[in-house]
Amino acid sequence: MLNCQQVPMASSPVSKLTEEQYLAIERAAEFKSEFLDGVMYAMSGGSPRHADLHGNVYAELRAMLRGSNCKAFNSDLRVRVSPRMYAYPDVSVVCGKPLLADDQKDVLLNPVVIFEVLSPSTELYDRGPKLQLYRTIPSLREYILVDQNKIRVEQYIRQDARTWTLLDHEGLDAELKMDSIGASLPLRLIYDGVDLES
User: Fold this and answer.
1) Whole-model pTM?
2) Which of 15, 55, 136, 179 lies 20 to 30 angstroms, CA to CA, from 164?
3) Is residue 145 located within the same domain as residue 74?
């Protein structure tokens, strides 16, 4: 989850970091930060509901994809979206061999599917700048937003270089079909054990 508080990294508040500087700082840091346009943003902790949804999606995908050529990763894996942006998606899926940047091999370059669990503090960012930049990843075929206030999943599917289709899935009987990875995830499993009342 992104906290829109800038991490103080330099004596001058207007100085911008290069992506190389960001990676050097991030690799030595105790806590994770995302990177956008030369600024590092600290990742804040999530709510129990956010953690449940994130955990359910990750666990179900890991189990479903076992034995296939696709693999799910949790939010510990950093993704290079572009030279402007590095992010920690809640869940990312790769098919085939993961392409990893540089000799550190800790930055993913070729996600096929990315999941983000929406939070009040990050929803506008996840739907706006992050969506726009994620869509520039050549390998990405599906971007999926999971609502934590109601049983609803939004699925953006790439049609071609410039066209994406939005599918809305609502209710426990709905099913999220991801053709790009050959998997279907019922919403009842995504929202299993999630307390939407509190």
Assistant:
1) 0.90
2) 55
3) yes
DSSP letter assigned to residue 61: H
Q: How far is CA 159 from CA 8, 60, 156, in A?
A: 40, 26, 10
Question: Tokens for 197?
Answer: 């009342």
Residue 37 CA to residue 14 CA, distance in Å, equals 12
My answer on whether 88 and 121 are in the same domain is yes
| Structural domain for 75, as ranges | 46-190
Residues 71 and 146 in one domain: yes
Count of C-beta atoms within a 10 Å radius of residue 102: 10
Q: What is the total count of domains within the chain?
A: 2
- Continuous segment of H or E residues that includes residue 105: none
Per-residue pLDDT tens digits for 93-146: 999 999 999 888 999 999 999 999 998 888 898 899 899 999 999 999 999 999
Q: How remote is the C-alpha of 74 from its chain's centroid?
A: 9
Task: Please tell me whether residues 124 and 31 are part of one structural domain.
Answer: no
Question: What residue spans of 29-183 are helical by DSSP H?
Answer: 48-65, 123-127, 129-134
User: Which pLDDT tens digit goes with each residue over 36-57?
Assistant: 999 999 987 778 999 999 999 9
**Do 99 and 111 fall within a single domain?**
yes
Kindly list the distances between the CA atom of residue 106 and the CA atoms of 76, 78, 103, 137, in Å, as whole numbers in the listed order.
10, 7, 8, 17
Q: What is the mean pLDDT of the chain?
A: 90
Q: Do 110 and 139 fall within a single domain?
A: yes
Co-location of 148 and 167 in the same domain: yes
Give the closest residue to 45 by CA, choosing from 9, 13, 83, 2. Answer: 2
